[in-house]
Amino acid sequence: MRNIGLGAGVFAFSPILSACSGEKFITKGDFKVSLPIPDEINAASFSLSATKATTDISKDIRLSGFKINKSFPSPTIRKSKGDSVEISFKNGMGQESIIHWHGFIIPPDMDGHPRDVVPSGQNYEYKYTLNQRAGTYWYHPHPDKLTGEQVYKGMAGFYIIEDEEEKALNLPSGKFEIPLLIQDRRVNGSGEIVYNPSRPEKMMTGILGDQILINGAPTPYHEVESSVYRLRLLNGSNARIYNLAFNDNTPYTVIGADGGLLPSAVETKELLLAPGERVDILVDFSKFANKNAKLISKTFEIPSSGGMMGNMMGSGGSEQGTGFSLMEFRIDKSTIGAPFSIPEKLSESNFPTRSEASKTRQIHLSMQMMQGHTINGKRFSMNRVDEQVRQGDTEIWEFVNETNQPHPMHVHAVQFKVLERSGNRGLKPTEKGWKDTVLVMPDERVQVIMKFTSEKGLYVFHCHNLEHEDNGMMANFEVV
Ligand code: C2O
Ligand code: CU
Ligand code: CU
Fold it and tell me: What is the enclosing helix (H) or strand (E) of 55?
């Protein structure tokens, strides 16, 4: 019926699993709530109006936080490559904010740099053209020191871009295309989701909860036909990494990453997805033996890190690497959808090569006792220029993790290609394509190559563990 599994061997990424026996899934939630799909915005000109709001997540769980256009999660924006958009961000949150369009290559004053925050009661006007590849992008607030709290309290949405190259593939669409925003939250004794990272969470792990929300619903279910679906998965959690799999180990096909379609598909049974990262997968529900397919996060270990330390220090949530049930797909075996065959070639990608790089920069990620999280020894400072790159140049950046915590590193205003990762861990299936966020494990070095094509000006790069970001692990780079 289809030919998948192209080149799977080449990218055999093994996330060091404890897997096999004795998996300890925390199956809080029971697949009782039907999966919500956020409303879509397609207009050329629109407002995103952020307000304080209380949301009933379920009959037992409440979130006193924020909503955009009265919606939680935030609405999905869907546009086409080449479109121009005008967006008015209306801040009614009672605190300063600014919206960032994660993964976009747009001018510095459109990018949501933290210095562009507007106080509550004011607006910020965006106007830009989408010169992006088709892909699963997203948007979220970006104020210095408040990003973690605002995202946690409800502000994050998909921003999907389509283009002709992708349309020609006739990938599953409509009800066969499902965006899934994955977030973990901590619920207190009275059923409230509160943003209260403990001290070790601020200093070490980031906030880790054990209530999974998918599109804002606690471990929901979704009814599907016995055919091929496209799932766009976004890890919108502050700190938690997921090891995506199905409970019976049925393989799925990775077709896209942060910056759109891979050159060709890769079949896998599991995949680590860190905060900020996206993956686009095809799942053939006719392949499941069971009628109930559970999307799970498999147990994994952080190499040489402080899983134990995180626990000892009483982080308050299940440690990084714990297994979770995420949601359930209920397969209607009586409806067989049209077969879909994945083309050999998904997209044209001309990745920059080592020979084009004008220099290699080292980006040291460390933790200093009284300093918090640092990049090249410094915490974020709003106007200090930390790195300068020449417009049009191609550079290799080597992220060097000197801590015992994982850091998903994100660079604004570019898409990059991951070149290599130290040790023998290889690249993840998604790293065969364009990325804007890359997971750097403890003691690892990861090299990425990128060409700076954006307009001149100031942008940031940072760890997408939002507690790390708010705690200083962010820096400015200037395109000159
Ligand atoms: Cu998704 Cu600077 O962030
Ligand atoms: Cu971003
Ligand atoms: Cu980090």
Answer: strand 45-56
